[in-house]
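Q: Sequence in, structure out?
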Amino acid sequence: MVKPEKVEEVQSLKKNFEKSSLAVCVNFRSVNVDQISRLRKQLRTFPVEYKVVKNTLTRLAIQNTPFQPLEQFLSGPTGIAFFHGDPATPIKVLTKFAKDVPNFQIKGGVIDGVPIGPQEIEKLAELPPREVLLAQLLATMKLPITNLVWTLQGILRQLIYTLQAIADKKANA
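A: Exactly. Output:
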């Protein structure tokens, strides 16, 4: 007999996965409640939801979804952080927390249906935020045009200086 609260939990997990662009599984064994509360508080400032989940119910929730590769990380005590927006800054919070609290371990995650391990998540944490990356891209795209304008202005400036020198020479002669 299927319990209604378990069905409700599976539906809630499915909704979280549908809204998410990235989900990261963590092992929180031997991490105290105060530390987890601190992590939740830090993650709440971003569009991130952290849940402690039951592995069997999570396996049911991720069936036939892009998050099915998460199944490999569902062993032992598992918490999942659901990222709804740009994951760069919240990933930094998660990896910093994992470094500060030795018992808290990042198992892995899934981004756009592709499983990523803890090393890739650490590399994601090293990336600058999306806005900075877009600004760098824009500056890179703008640079050749700026250089062309400066080069053309230099040619025009040289022409003006030459004409001015000729005019000065004729005025003095």
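The chain has two domains: 4-127, 128-173.
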